[in-house]
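Still learning. Any example?
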Amino acid sequence: MCSEVAVASERSSMGPTVAERIHQRVERFHSERVAGHWGGRHLLHSGTPRYGDVILNSGDYLALTGDPRINHAIKTGLRSANMGRFASGAFLHGAHPQIVLERALAEHLRAPAGILCQSGWHATVGLMQSIADPETPVYIDQFAHMSLWHSARVARAPIHSFRHNFPGHLRELIRQHGPGIIAVDAIYSTNGSRCPLTQLCDIAEETDSVLVVDESHALGTDGPAGAGMVVALGLTDRVSFRIASLSKAFAGRAGFVAANSAEFADYFKMESQPAVFSSMLLPYEIAGLAATLDVIRVDNARRQRLRELSTMVRRALTTLEFDLEGSASHIVALQAGPDLRASAIRDFLEARGIYGSLLCPPCTSYNHTLIRFCLHAGLTDQHIDRFIEACTDIRARFGATPPIKGFSPAHAQARGVPSNT
């Protein structure tokens, strides 16, 4: 009994256990963030869309979900005799359907080699792990996707952030820290701005650096036959690596790496831990993505429609004096400011049948929460009119510019919004 008391006393003097520290972190999230900062309601728990509402929170930019050609291919894949045969992609070769699709996607992107991965996150982590190391600096645009930051940390590479779309700052950092890997998004997911890729290619070549471009939000929507922004700008020979999530315009669940070396694919599949320790895609996923690629190649009307309505929306919101942070694509975002103001705007929109995505920290910086809208080719002119009308009402009710100071429940009540929002 005495020994048990002694052990308990020793533990007490050593502070909380690991399990207790984890519990404290969870409790702190709920007490400080949910109950405190958010007023008792989880910020991301919003309403449920109804039939006829305008849904702008999906990456399905070409509105391909439910396309009968793709559905037929998926159903055929589900009946495949190989449904139960799983293996790491490293074991696949020859005429295996996943290898055939890798070659087709590489050809589509005009790249010598390509590798399919379980997700865009796996593709990014696997690539950076395969090309970066503690001696190679990684220069990342401050608005680049979190997967690029995480993957550089996995590779234990020195990380240097450069100001968004500011080639001069990048050049200055490389001058200080030496050649390395430059990592950017072609189209940035939070605000829809486009990267000045040609200028970054110039810097990469002048400094003997390597450029990695995330084409997740440009593949399918940009370039000839939807081949992406790098192809559209004629930069395929100048961009060493491209990565993409196929959960956007391809409306699937996989990732892709395109490389400017035919030998890179075999190297990647043995060097990248996500590739080695993840199974191949399922037959119905491969069949669905292959059919989606065929549709994307020929369906230029959807791309044209997406460009037209995106231009229309950006023009209207700019006229209403919203700061779109340089959006030049099918992604637009309203600067909502503090979290409670953002949730009030979100609720205001949903009451009018408009559903976007609320992006808060860690996706954005503190007090810089966004309401993001992902436009898609399935929107009608009536949908666009409803959306612009709702944004006009937002401007009248909340103003086009977020307040400099925080937005409290008192501010919410003053605007006629329940304090628990």
